[in-house]
Amino acid sequence: MNNKNKLSREAIAMRVTKELHNGNVVNLGIGIPTLCPQFIDPDKFIMYHSESGVLNYGEMASERREDTNLINAGGQYLSWDNPGMSVFDSAESFAMIRGGHIDVAVLGAYQISTQGNLANWKLTNRKSGNIGGAMDLAIGAKKLIIAMEHIDKKGNIKLVNKCSLPITGSKCVNTIVTDIAVIEIINECMVLKEILPGWGIQDVQEITEPKLIIDKNLKEIQL
Asked: Which of 114, 132, 168, 203 is the most buried (most CB within 10 A)?
């Protein structure tokens, strides 16, 4: 197993925010994606959306200001401080997703195939599992970004030729930001766009099942 340095979960979220543009409506999934509001450029106006029924929320609430009436998809407490924030019921929230009003969804993943298929709701060794809003977001968002570690805690490869886990959505992933690389899926190929300093192309390829296409402008990851 490669022992080179990797980005922290916070740094992955920080890199994801570079993919978000002024005025975007952005839904954040459970895990690493929920960290994104902590790192957004103050010059950007990003409206964060949650299936729980909130739009234009900001950073997570401090412990002393936790309010059980305001949470994100991961059950984390949000702050009421963001000007223009609105709350509504879950049905309206999903109507926004299914109506194509979400510019970007940022989700985690167990596996992603070279075709852009996403598996992120159930592991084969678990009897329980709930697809939740991930299926709607995978299809309904205009762009889908995956934020995740490149391999899992057991060393299993997550970027694969074909998903072996239950599929959340087909041909839906656009961009993948991991702890070592930024990869785009273009014409059912994985294109390596950015790489973490200290890592070589072959290092990344060794823990990526599909053959990577190397972008002619490959550069180091910029946070």
From this structure: 168
Reading the block at residue 137, the tokens are 């977001």
Question: CB 108: neighbour CB atoms within 10 A?
Answer: 17
Q: Where are the beta strands (DSSP E) in 64-205?
A: 86-87, 104-107, 111-113, 118-119, 143-147, 159-160, 175-177, 181-186, 189-195
Three-class secondary structure of residue 166 per DSSP? coil
pTM confidence score: 0.93
Does 215 fall in a domain? yes
51 tagged catalytic = yes
Per the structure block, which two tokens stand in for 14?
């920080």
Q: What is the mean pLDDT of residues 133-157?
A: 95
Catalytic option among 19, 51, 149, 194? 51
Q: Which domain holds residue 146?
A: 9-220
**φ, ψ at 93 (rounded to 5°):** -60, -45
In-domain check, residue 62:
yes
| Tens digit of each residue's pLDDT (9 = 90 or more) over 111-126 | 999 999 999 988 766 6
Q: What are phi and psi of 54, to 5 degrees?
A: -145, 140
Determine what percent of the chain falls in helix, strand and coil, rounding each to the nearest 5.
20, 25, 55
Q: Which residues in the chain belong to E strands, given as ranges? A: 25-28, 47-50, 54-57, 86-87, 104-107, 111-113, 118-119, 143-147, 159-160, 175-177, 181-186, 189-195, 213-220
The CATH number of whichever domain residue 79 belongs to comes to: 3.40.1080.10
